[in-house]
């Protein structure tokens, strides 16, 4: 059991600092005495939207979240949230004094209370009066009205987790920490909860740090990604940039893909297609009922991208874009290469055999055409 937090200052007065009046500043150095693992991070993160802490098992995602929550005390630690210091050389706010909500992998509801009882307990514990309408808004946001009277043991896994998220929100946190909140659920339950998380993200202003090792979840929810590797930050940035960088073996496999964001600019009713403009690169996708002007995210798998020296019109492929080779990165499979390509403003990745790389004489700066066999709408 990690050592519980202790107070080293009067927590009534949160120390103000001008270090990061906006944003989150997180710097931790932690070494577990019984393990070789060390966490070493020094980050400034956005104070809005969803930041995914993404990485392989054991890379230190949970440890970082626990340091931020004050559940784990780093030998050296500094955490500033919008100008309020939660930890420094002289400050250590205990967890219960930090204005945060924490959602764990396993929803930890009180089994002897109803869903409503769990929520009321959290509101009472927080000691912050609820503004009019917030309770109903959160219940509605999580879609739990119909299960409020149920004993928490009668709830399904998905319902329990939605109640746990509502409970975390009712504390009115300035930061919401979510540690693999969908990991204990089967795929059907995950698909059921993801739209609630999307709605939560677009409705509430609370910044969310979301730990996950699921590319699908990260691509759907995150705006910003911190990629963790061996206790360090391999890279961080806007989600499109991180997935385009190939900075981790986690991103270099059969599922290697890029994420593009764009707006629907045209509908083709006859063929049930929509045209989406992703920073100048225009793609046809299946019409999923989105209106013109709607912002969407699409995922393009590297295995769905092939390259040709000239734009072929005698192929079934709808999406063809002019591209320039940025670089050629070895795949984990020695037969395969990941070719990073520049489109107008986006990066695209093609997974090809080295034989094809040689056949097309691919090299940095070469211009050619990318054919995109399939584009998946992310939602
Ligand atoms: N209390 C502890 N004492 C010793 N070692 C620990 C302790 N907690 C975590 N570790 C080790 O620290 C490393 C990072 O663990 P952490 O749980 O942060 O990784 P993670 O990226 O969240 O992994 P996962 O995705 O599997 O949850 C692991 O090697 C783990 O065994």
Automatic annotation (TrEMBL):
This is Molybdenum ABC transporter ATP-binding protein. Pfam families: ABC_tran (PF00005), TOBE (PF03459). One of its GO terms (cellular component) is membrane. It comes from Marinomonas arctica. The keyword RNA-binding does not apply. One of its GO terms (molecular function) is ABC-type transporter activity. The keyword Ion transport does not apply. Keywords: ATP-binding, Cell inner membrane, Cell membrane, Membrane, Molybdenum, Nucleotide-binding, Translocase, Transport. Residues 314-379 form the Mop domain. Residues 14-255 form the ABC transporter domain.
């Amino acid at each position: 059991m990690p050592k519980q937090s202790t107070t080293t200052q009067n927590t009534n007065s949160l120390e103000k600092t001008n270090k990061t009046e906006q944003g989150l500043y997180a710097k931790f150095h932690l070494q577990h005495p019984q393990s070789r693992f060390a966490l070493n991070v020094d980050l400034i993160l956005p104070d809005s939207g969803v930041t995914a802490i993404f990485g392989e098992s054991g890379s230190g995602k949970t440890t970082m979240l626990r340091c931020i929550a004050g559940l784990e005390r780093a030998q050296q630690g500094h955490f500033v949230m919008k100008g309020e210091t939660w930890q420094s050389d002289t400050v250590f706010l205990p967890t219960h004094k930090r204005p945060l909500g924490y959602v764990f992998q396993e929803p930890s509801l009180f089994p002897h209370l109803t869903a409503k009882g769990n929520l009321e307990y959290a509101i009472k514990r927080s000691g912050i009066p609820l503004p009019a309408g917030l309770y109903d808004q959160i219940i509605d946001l999580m879609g739990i009205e119909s299960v409020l009277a149920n004993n928490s043991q009668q709830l399904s896994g998905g319902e329990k987790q939605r109640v746990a998220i509502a409970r975390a929100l009712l504390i009115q946190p300035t930061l919401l920490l979510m540690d693999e909140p969908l990991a204990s659920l089967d795929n059907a339950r995950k698909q059921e909860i993801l739209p609630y998380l999307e709605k939560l993200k677009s409705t509430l202003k609370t910044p969310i740090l979301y730990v996950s090792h699921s590319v699908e979840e990260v691509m759907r929810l995150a705006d910003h990604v911190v990629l963790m590797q061996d206790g360090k930050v391999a890279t961080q940035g806007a989600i499109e940039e991180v997935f385009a960088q190939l900075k981790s073996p986690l991103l270099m496999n059969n599922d290697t893909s890029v994420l593009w964001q764009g707006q629907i600019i045209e509908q083709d009713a006859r063929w049930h297609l929509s045209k989406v403009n992703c920073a100048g690169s225009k793609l046809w996708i299946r019409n999923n009922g989105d209106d013109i002007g709607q912002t969407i995210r699409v995922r393009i798998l590297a295995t769905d991208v092939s390259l040709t020296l000239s734009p072929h019109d005698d192929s079934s492929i709808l999406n063809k874009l002019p591209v320039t080779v940025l670089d050629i990165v070895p795949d984990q499979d020695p037969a395969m290469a990941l070719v990073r390509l520049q489109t107008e403003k986006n990066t695209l990745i093609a997974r090809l055999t080295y034989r094809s790389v040689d056949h097309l004489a691919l090299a940095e700066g070469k211009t050619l055409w990318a054919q995109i066999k399939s584009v998946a709408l992310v939602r």
